[in-house]
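Hey team,

Filing this mostly as a record. A colleague (T.K.) asked me to run one chain through the structure pipeline before their review meeting, and I want the input and output archived in the tracker in case anyone asks later how it was produced. No errors, nothing strange. Just documentation.

Input sequence:
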Amino acid sequence: MLYLNHKISQSLHFKIHKSSNPEILLYTVLYLRCMQVHHSVNNLPPFKNAVITIGTFDGVHLGHQQIIKQLKEEAANIGGETVIITFHPHPRNIVTQNKPVYLLTTLQEKISLLSAFGIDHLIIVPFNKDFSEQRPEEYIINFLFEKCRPHTLIIGYDHRFGKNRMGDYHLLEQYGKQLGFAVKEIPEQVINEVTVSSTRIREALLKGDIATANTYLGYPYFFEGMVVDGNKLGRTLGYPTANIIVQDENKLVPSNGIYVAEAQVAEASIVNSEWSIERGSGVSPFSIHHSPLLQGMMSIGIRPTINGKDRTIEMNIFDFNEDIYGRTIKIFMCAYLRPEEKFNSLDALKQQIDNDKENSLEYFRKRKD
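Output structure:
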């Protein structure tokens, strides 16, 4: 099965690290540089025998990875290019605005993950009300056919599109025969797995069940934020922390609790550099600048021992004393340690943090073995 396991995801994409397998390293770096990202459906390049699939691909989890595998196999069979069409913002955040969807991956994260899987082209369609209200026939002719020129369209049996979601797989087959492109079905079992995986990952993260989330993802769940000034309580207790603000309000942050985690800190020289998705890059400053992966533990919560009210994210990085205020940090969720608790004193809190550190170090020792 095609997936990024914990070791590969750390050593290849999120951290361009010395690998025991130079071929895998070269493979991944090559694809990180080669995937073309298109932020508009206008002026797309001519694709070679385009094999296309369509979806949100939020999380790029194991279910999605089966679709990617099918896409790549079909493209290899006909000497074609793989093309994924996705949407931004998430369609449900436009169509049903009263029920926001919290994302497993931001747009930049999605680009990076799809790059690592060797996709040739990613088309990011700006999703809005006008696009959602196209008649299904307009969607097929004016968008899919005229803009993308598919050789083969690989799509789920339950795929719906166009105004009021009236378009379906059978309509695509009908127009495919008229316009000269093949339509192939993603097996129902795979589609169901995608749906189940997305739901289970979100539910697991909201319960602090990192093991289940990471299993369904095929890699450690991660998020990015900016390191900001805090109240220095951690420093007072002997455990200085990086206080993190997640800048994408739609990114799903796991439930309150104490976690084993790893971190990457962007190089100071590129904090304000433009590595944005607008340039079509799937490579973040973490991979470009070989940012090391740092072990530690993390707290998410309101800090009840000091009667806190606001939710905070704090990362204690072991054996680390650099000034990283204002820098971007990426957190990888490794394991859940315990729920957030209110202690009777700071001394009692410190004793528990000592235990948390020992439990975190034990986790890393066992993983190494």
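Quick notes for T.K.: The first strand starts at residue 36 and ends at 38. Confidence is low (pLDDT under 50) at residues 1-33, 269-283.
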